[in-house]
Amino acid sequence: MKAETETVVVKNAGEEGIKTILNWFEERKASFYKLARAYSSSNQEIQEVFYQTVMKLFDDKKYNVEDQNFEMQAAAIFIKECQAINKTSIADTGNKQSGSIFNELKNLEEKDREAVAVTYLKELSFLEAAQILQISIDSLKSRLSRGIQQLSRGLEKEMHPGDCTPYRNKFIDYLGKNLDRNEKVEVEIHIPTCPSCQEELTDVQESILSLQRSADQLHIPPGLMRSVKEKAVETERLRTQRKKKRNRLGLTAVGIMTFIVCTGFVTGGFTNLYYSWMGWTEKEEMEIIQYYKSGISEPLELVQENKGVKVTIKTAVADDIQTVIYYEVEDMNKENQYFLNQDEGMRVENEYEVLDRQANQRFYHPFENGLANEEEVNIFRGKISLAPIKSDSGTINLKLMRLQETMKEEPDSSTMDSYYPEFLEGEWSFDIPVEKHESTVYDLDQESEVDGIPIQINKLTLAPTAALLEYSYQERDQEQWIEHVTMDSLTTNGYSAKADYFRGGEFINQSGEWTTLQSRFEPLFVTTPEEVTLSFDSMLLFIEDKKDIEINQAGELPQTFEYRGNELTIDQVEMAGNSTKVFITDPYTEGREHERLRMQVMSDSSSQGYGFGVDGILVDKNGEEFEPEGYHYPFEEIEQPRFFETSHELEIYDDSSSDPGYPTRLVIEGYNVTKYIEDKIIIPID
């Protein structure tokens, strides 16, 4: 059976572009699944290979056109992901029913296994297999010969003595029907006269057929692609939501915080990369100087130039929390400023080999619309953060496919909605050497109280790139609980480290009545602090207060109902294909308690959907209102801001059905409210 190689049209158009690639893989999942099983028996790992391949094909725009070689391109990326999974794979606890020869395949040398898997499991021609593996056809044949011979020995086939090497070297070509007529005739004349070659040819043929039969008998899980599809579509949907939301909300403080809590923490949609939205300030310069003085890092000055734009990797700092890379982008034409945007064209090529993907990785910064520096109109300096490296040292292969152009001026409300970032396509690749540095961990056991809530300070970690504080709190009752804690700062020995607002109150574990969280701060450049002062900022609480509303039929909308003294309206229900959307207005009124509602919508078919806030309003401590699109920077000037969502969009999405059904019920579980606190805790360091 020949692998599918027909033309595919892939258009990078949000979710539809993702679905085009996913549908393409759905039709060919059998051959790709066989290929993946040569590397792993874990269906979870294989699903991750499919997901990573889909996202890389989608993200890299060079694959998003009609291309006769799309199969080859997809297979090449798929194999790289298989190799990466294989290097970090857990112990093989998968199903062994595929047959002994399939298990023997995993014992082959990596190069020989690749050749055998691509040729006989993916069923590609010698030329196609050689192109994918980027080797010559002769090298491919040599690897196939060694691999098949070892598979034969694994099946306890006998060794066949005899001086027939010239003929035996042609068996792979002969069985693959790749010999020219004269050579084919020569082999067929020799074989009947040589019992040893007859037996060996039979063994080689039986090994190949046995491998292919075993692969054909593999049980492909019915839902193999379902989770891949859901994860890929959700990833792109969250990207789109992030872009829409930050454009509409004007990047306000609590709007962003609400977005992070509601989108990031709830869905787990975090990634192992983030970038800094602004150019370097004096703070970043001082960080680098401190690193140089302490010997933690050294200047790298790695330079790549493409499309008239020069990207320089200035230095890198690694510890067991993260790996921070400082960079500079210079437009040699002196026309624009560009910066690195992880969502739009950045990739660590050897991510599986060098980065610790199990680490508690940092959420990327949502401020993607960096403002241009008026003093240096063609230079942008920033930093990115990757997951920590696995070993004490390593080399990160960072590839950039596109750079984002900075905004030349802060947009006002009339231009923000229509703004869409511009990108420069190109290729900049770096091999970045990094060395991991140790952290100092202080085990603490201090009890205190914040706003009536018992608090335990458990652990303080001081690392070169950040400070981490682990603490626990005790629930007051079962009807409300803390969802997010925002710290203000850590202060010691004259140094003050501001809290990372986007990694405050991260959940660690729960034991009995105690919930353990972790907050991150800027690095504290001190070695032996005697005490640390912790300043709090706010807590995001969830208050449980359920309400069940029956939704009227479309002809009876809009429908108004009351929740905690506020009048909400179900404006419309929109049904299109396998998606049903419900739009709700939730106006802000003075004295309104809830900032964001947690709710879901249900249909008669038992389908259910969730949603997010679309619009909102910012209110300060004194009740003054700010329209988010009219207030951008600096949000610190608003005293104790609270962001109230004023409209909601909920969606029932059923990928397996073209009709998820009309919504019949709206269920409100409760609401979020922000509470500001000004408590401080002095933490002695023993």
TrEMBL record:
Annotated GO MF terms: DNA binding; sigma factor activity
Boundaries of every RNA polymerase sigma factor 70 region 4 type domain copy: 105-151
CDD domains: Sigma70_r4
Keyword set, alphabetical order: Membrane, Transmembrane, Transmembrane helix
DUF4179 domain residues: 242-331
Spans traversing the lipid bilayer: 249-275
GO BP annotations, alphabetical order: DNA-templated transcription initiation
InterPro entries for the chain: DUF4179 (IPR025436), RNA_pol_sigma70_r4_t2 (IPR013249), RNA_pol_sigma_r3/r4-like (IPR013324), WH-like_DNA-bd_sf (IPR036388)
Pfam entry (one): DUF4179
Protein name: DUF4179 domain-containing protein
Lineage summary: Bacteria, Bacillati, Bacillota, Bacilli, Bacillales
